[in-house]
Amino acid sequence: MIKIGVIGALGKMGKEVVKAVLNDTETELVSAVDIFSQGSDIGEIVTGKKCGVAIETDLEKELKTKNIDIVIDFTQPKTIYEHVKLFITNHVKSVIGTTGLNEEQIKELKELSQKNNTGCLIAPNFSTGAVLLMMFAKQAAKYFNNAEIIELHHNQKKDAPSGTAVKTAQMMAEVNNNFTLGNCEETELIKGSRGGTANGNIHIHSIRMPGYIASQEVIFGSSGQIFKIKHDTMDRSCYMAGVLLAVKHLYKNNDFVYGLDNIL
Question: Domain of 220?
Fold first, then answer.
């Protein structure tokens, strides 16, 4: 059995991860960390049935005492960089779903992972549909010189643009370095109205609104045609197959991976 620790266990994603780990025949929940409800049984809170794992608040103590094979982290952008460094230096493999890491931080974490010989998988999105969208967008990018990205999330998401949108732009820019070919010189009458500019001069537009979970659309254009690729998340349970895929990959491997597309 793969011994799992869930960080941010009482969050919306954390609760889904707890259920997925408890229901999978190859994983065993051995640790649940959150800043709330210390001492409460996480199973009773999430599923209504006790599982024998009490919520703890001391992350480093859990890493040192619970014999965890892999931690799964869905917490906050402001803490994730330090969390991953803590996982790696304690030689605990980690699956990271929290977004907000920049390119320099990811590079540093990769070097730290290799130095400590401790695997880490960071994915901006664990939905297989969203990952396929990124892969399809990269393919389409070979044939279009104009593209923009619109990403839509619930209004409690703290980082913008989304990690998925950033990763999509990075993948597209690997095959085409300029997606504003032929655009005229622009003047923004309201600053930010054209969105942020990512790799390949791709404009990313972020929408935050109650009612959404996560959606993304990549729009390609050329003379006489528009091509759109879109993915919508209706329920957070759609991420769990990808999370478990990442866990099982890391259990058998000890590498650093950025993006679920690299193990599909």
Answer: 128-233
